[in-house]
Amino acid sequence: MFGRKDNREAQFATCKDFQKIFTEEMGSLHLLALMLTADEYKAQHCFVAGLEDSIQGNPVFQQWARSWSKRAIIKNAIKLVAPAPELPGGELPEPLHGRDDRGGDRDAACDGRATDPCGRDREQGA
Q1: Higher model confidence: residue 19 or residue 86?
Q2: DSSP per-residue letters across the chain
């Protein structure tokens, strides 16, 4: 409109952009996947899935393509290491709510009932 060319395609990362990023950053992206999964096979799967997600996913600005690639690796690592629970009624599995590993009450911490770790009363303003 008004004589300006729409340069929309040039603003977004292409398949070739992501291929270039995953080729140039292969070592660091694979290391990221390996550190997150702690398993070579899962890291390789995570790397390939990250490339596929980056290419086939939503359009991303070219300036964000490198960050988006890392994001795809991280998302896939989370899926591989800690898949989403599938319990009826949307309940979380036992380790994810209630008491935490240190013996504290995670639900109390979330709703403000937790005590100060130093033993001070919250209302006193410490």
Answers
A1: 19
A2: -TT----HHHHB--HHHHHHHHHHTHHHHHHHHHHHH--HHHHHHHHHHHHHHHHHSS--BGGGHHHHHHHHHHHHHHHHHSPPP--GGGPPPGGGSSB-TTS-BHHHHHHT-PPPTTS--GGGT-
